[in-house]
Every structure is written in C-alpha cells, then in structure tokens.
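User: Some background: our group keeps a shared notebook of sequences we're curious about, and every so often someone picks one and asks for a predicted structure to add to the entry. Today it's my turn. The entry only has the sequence so far, pasted here. Could you supply the structure so I can complete it?
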Amino acid sequence: MESNGQYYPLWESNRARIIKAIVSGGGILSLSESDFILRGNRDSYTFRIEYKDGQPVRRGGSAVARDLQDKLEQYKFFFEVMKGRDVIIRMTSSFEVIISVSRDDNPEIEAAVVGMKISHKSYGLGTIEYIDEEYVVVRFGAEVRKMDYKLSLITGIIEIEK
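Assistant: Of course. Here's the predicted structure to add to the notebook entry:
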C-alpha cells in the first residue's frame, strides 16, 4: 500500500534528529500529537519499524510508518549510517519516537580533539577549534563551521588527517 506523503513534512523536519539518535546508540524524541492529527485522523498513530544490518525487515504497516521510512531512506547516507546496525524505531501512543539500537558493528569513531586536522569534502583542510557535547567547531581558513563530528565521519563527509 502506498502512502500519499501526508506525514512527510513531520518526518522531514525530524529526520536529522532520528539519524543522530541512531548514530548515538538510541534515543527518544517527543513529538506533538496535534501535528499528526492535522495531517490525518487515525485510530492510532503508533508503529514499529525494524532494520537488521541496516536493511528494513519489512515496510511499515501504516502511512505514518511508511512516510518515515521513505524520508529516512531518501537521505543519501542513510544506508551507510545503518550498515552493521540493528535498529527498532517505534512511536508510542504518547507520540514519543523511541529509537533502540541493539547491535552496532560500525567501526569505532576516533574521538575529536581540539587541534585535530580534518579534511572536509567541500571545505578542504581544517582544524578543530572547539568541542561541545554534540558538535565540533572547525576552522577552514577564514571560514568557521559547526558540525556533527560523529555523523560527518560515519558518512564520509570528513576524514581525519594523519
């Protein structure tokens, strides 16, 4: 059964948060019930999506789930991020999206260090200047960029200069 994409805007705006939770080993996102009700009146919005070794076990049974899978799988690095991971994404009746990662065979990511040299696909060589809980700030010549270090490494956007 095909979806007409009525939930695409919701999932598009939350896709980065969901992928970040997958990369981080899991997480919970609290979403707004009213955002879903505005897009379709359903008896239930709950769903469960499962990926084994990065591949979907089956398509989601509801339009809500199928639209999320479509939006995740349209992200060009999604299957690379998912490789080696077993993931369950489910939404509860209280509109919490719970991301559980039960297996993560992706190689360990080298920790970011201030002063570390990296190479970015678009910006070239840069130096990490600052690190907070989720992001690194990198100087590429005169330009400074804030980025998600772990996700950028996994997707190949940046590489560590040895």
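Suggested note for the entry: Residues 128 and 138 are 4 Å apart (CA to CA). The first helix runs from residue 8 to 23.
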